[in-house]
C-alpha cells in the first residue's frame, strides 16, 4: 500500500512538472524536506501535502530568483510550514483577534501621543522628548530578552505577544535576572476577558486580566501545553513574577513607536501575515500585498536599523528559532508594513 501511495504521488509529480516546467522539484526533494523537519502524514494524505509543498516550493524559487535580480529585498524558504494548508496555518500559527470595533478612546485606552511627555503619569515619566535617537537598536541579545519560543500547534500568538514585554520589564526591575513567564496561564485563564485560548485573542485583553488578577506566574510553575484547559492559577496561592500596571496605544505613529521602544522596551504589534511572511527566510520584508486585509498575527518589536538605505524594524515571532532569522524578522520601517503600526502597544509594570 505504501508503494502504491508513493507511485501515485510520483505520477502527480510528473504531471505537475510537465505542466509547470518544474522538473527540478521532485519527490526526492520532498523526501529530504520531510526528513529535515521530521514530517509524518496520516494514511492517504501524503499526496495532498506533496502538492502543497510543491506549489510553495515553486513560489519560493520564483521569488528568490527575483531577489537575486534585485527586484525584492528578502528571501523565502520552504520551511517547516510549507506543506500545510491555509486552514492549518490559521489554526496553528495565527490566532490574533481584534476586540470588536477597536477604538482606543471608546475602550478607555490611553494614547501615548496624547500624553504630555514632560509630565509624570502616576509616579513615572513615560517618554522624554529631549533624548537623542540613535541610528539603530537591537535588543535581541539583551540579557532581559527571553529565548525564542514556539506556540506549536496552538493559535495563541496573542499570549506570546502579551508575555514578552512583561518578561522584559520584569527582568529590568529585578536586576537583569531573566524571567520566563507562563503563556499557558493566559490561554487557560483570560477567557472572561474576551480571549479564546488556542482559537484567538488579543494582547491588551491579556494585560487587562493580569492587572486584575495580580500578575503572571512563571512557565516552570504553569508550563506550556499548546492546548487550552481549565484555569489552574490560584490568586491567593500561586506566586506571580510579572505584572502589568498600565499600557498605552501608540496611535499608529511609527515615530512614537520608535521612541517608546528606545526608551521603554519591546512593543506589541499586530500584522497581516500572508504566505510570504510565513515562508520568510532573510532580508528586509517588504511586500505590498500585506498592507491590506485583516490583521491576524502578532509580533513584538525589539529593535530597528537601516541597511543599504532601507529602514527596518526587528520583530520577534513565536514560531520557534528555526523560523526566519533565528525566530526574528526584519520588516521595512516607516511604511506601516503589514499594518504593524495600527495596533501597537506599550505595556509597563
TrEMBL record:
The keyword Cytoplasm does not apply. GO terms for biological process: proteolysis. CDD domains: Peptidase_C1A. SUPFAM superfamilies: Cysteine proteinases. One of its GO terms (molecular function) is cysteine-type peptidase activity. The keyword Disulfide bond applies. Keywords: Disulfide bond. PROSITE patterns: THIOL_PROTEASE_ASN, THIOL_PROTEASE_HIS. Pfam families: Inhibitor_I29 (PF08246), Peptidase_C1 (PF00112). PANTHER family: CYSTEINE PROTEASE FAMILY C1-RELATED (PTHR12411). Belongs to the peptidase C1 family. This is Uncharacterized protein. It comes from Daphnia magna.
Amino acid at each position: 500500500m505504501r508503494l502504491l501511495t508513493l507511485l501515485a504521488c510520483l505520477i502527480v509529480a510528473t504531471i505537475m512538472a510537465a505542466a509547470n516546467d518544474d522538473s527540478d522539484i521532485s519527490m526526492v526533494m520532498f523526501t529530504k524536506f520531510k526528513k529535515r523537519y521530521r514530517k509524518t502524514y496520516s494514511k492517504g494524505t501524503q499526496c495532498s501535502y506533496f502538492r502543497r509543498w510543491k506549489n510553495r516550493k515553486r513560489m519560493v524559487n520564483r521569488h528568490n530568483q527575483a531577489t537575486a535580480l534585485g527586484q525584492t529585498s528578502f528571501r523565502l524558504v520552504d520551511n517547516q510550514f510549507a506543506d500545510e494548508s491555509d486552514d492549518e496555518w490559521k489554526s496553528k500559527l495565527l490566532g490574533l483577534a481584534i476586540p470588536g470595533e477597536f477604538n482606543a478612546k471608546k475602550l478607555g485606552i490611553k494614547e501615548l501621543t496624547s500624553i504630555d511627555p514632560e509630565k509624570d503619569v502616576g509616579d513615572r515619566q513615560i517618554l522624554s522628548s529631549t533624548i537623542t535617537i540613535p541610528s539603530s537598536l537591537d535588543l535581541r541579545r539583551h540579557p532581559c530578552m527571553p529565548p525564542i519560543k514556539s506556540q506549536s500547534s496552538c493559535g495563541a500568538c496573542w499570549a506570546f505577544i502579551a508575555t514578552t514585554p512583561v518578561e522584559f520589564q520584569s527582568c529590568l526591575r529585578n536586576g537583569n535576572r531573566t524571567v520566563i513567564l507562563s503563556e499557558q496561564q493566559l490561554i487557560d485563564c483570560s477567557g472572561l476577558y474576551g480571549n479564546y485560548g488556542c482559537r484567538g485573542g488579543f494582547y491588551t485583553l491579556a494585560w487587562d486580566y493580569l492587572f486584575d488578577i495580580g500578575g503572571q506566574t512563571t512557565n516552570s510553575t504553569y508550563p506550556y501545553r499548546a492546548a487550552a484547559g481549565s484555569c489552574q492559577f490560584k490568586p491567593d496561592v500561586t506566586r506571580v513574577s510579572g505584572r502589568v500596571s498600565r499600557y498605552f496605544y501608540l496611535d499608529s505613529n511609527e515615530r512614537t513607536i520608535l521612541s517608546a521602544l528606545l526608551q521603554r522596551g519591546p512593543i506589541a504589534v499586530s500584522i497581516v501575515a500572508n504566505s510570504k511572511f510565513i515562508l520568510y527566510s532573510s532580508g528586509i520584508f517588504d511586500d505590498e500585498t500585506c498592507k491590506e486585509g485583516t490583521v491576524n498575527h502578532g509580533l513584538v518589536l525589539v529593535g530597528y536599523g537601516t541597511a543599504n538605505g532601507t529602514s527596518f524594524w526587528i520583530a520577534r515571532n513565536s514560531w520557534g528559532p528555526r523560523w526566519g532569522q533565528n525566530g526574528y524578522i526584519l520588516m521595512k520601517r516607516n511604511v506601516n508594513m503589514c499594518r504593524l503600526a495600527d495596533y501597537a502597544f506599550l505595556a509597563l509594570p
